[in-house]
Amino acid sequence: MIGLVTGANRGLGYEMVKEGLLRGHTMLAGCRKGADEAYARDLLEQKTKYPDSLLILEMDVINEEMVKGAAERVRQKYGHIDFLVNNAGVLFEKMVMPGDAVADLNVEMFRKTLDVNVTGTAIVLKYFIGLLYASEDACIMNITSEAGHLTPQGYNYLAYSVSKHAANMYTQKIRNYLAEEKADRHMRIYMIHPGRMDTIMGKENAQIPPSESALGLLDILDRKKQIPDMDVPFINYRGEPMPY
């Protein structure tokens, strides 16, 4: 299979690329700074091991022209992709921010979080959906979070939680569209809670290494784990349903 993973220079994105290559897939690694040596050192090491199976794409998910250009490059080289993992995301907040959560809101941080975590996901899918349509067994994974579901208590990670709830809603609307208007294509689409991973972004609340999450997600992509049809396809990296 041919698959694109965004935010692929580190953490979960890198581990998914690494595991995908081990499984024999052709992996497209979307990175904000492309193959910059300091930024993508680990990916460049993988490139030396798998020169014909790894393509590093310079792709800032909120830069529409850059994403459009990356999609055209993939179209010319491969003609299709079989899966897309929208993994690129940001978390600027600490678990509990100091001060008043309402009156002390950092508006610029709030806006940037929504831009990357929601709009970026939509931009990538806009330009790569045609390549997914060209696959015989396409799958879309939008990496969201358990932080995105509604809870009766707690206000931690305010901007991040809002963005992930919005990303879940976006995924659900696309799922509904595909089911109603593109049913003949039999595309799988999931919103994924990847687990509380020990990454730069998630270290404060970590429970698992990103490699464990990557293994589970590749098992879902490879159909080693069978996911039942769900009206709201929100699952974790083990393929288990998540509360919405």
Automatic annotation (TrEMBL):
InterPro entries found in the cross-reference section: Fungal_SecMetab_SDRs, NAD(P)-bd_dom_sf, Sc_DH/Rdtase_CS, SDR_fam
Gene Ontology CC terms: cytoplasm
Database matches in Gene3D superfamilies: NAD(P)-binding Rossmann-like Domain (3.40.50.720)
Coiled coil: none
GO molecular function annotations of the record: oxidoreductase activity
UniProt KW keywords: NADP, Oxidoreductase
Domain of life assignment: Bacteria
SUPFAM superfamilies, per the entry: NAD(P)-binding Rossmann-fold domains
Name of protein: NAD(P)-dependent dehydrogenase (Short-subunit alcohol dehydrogenase family)
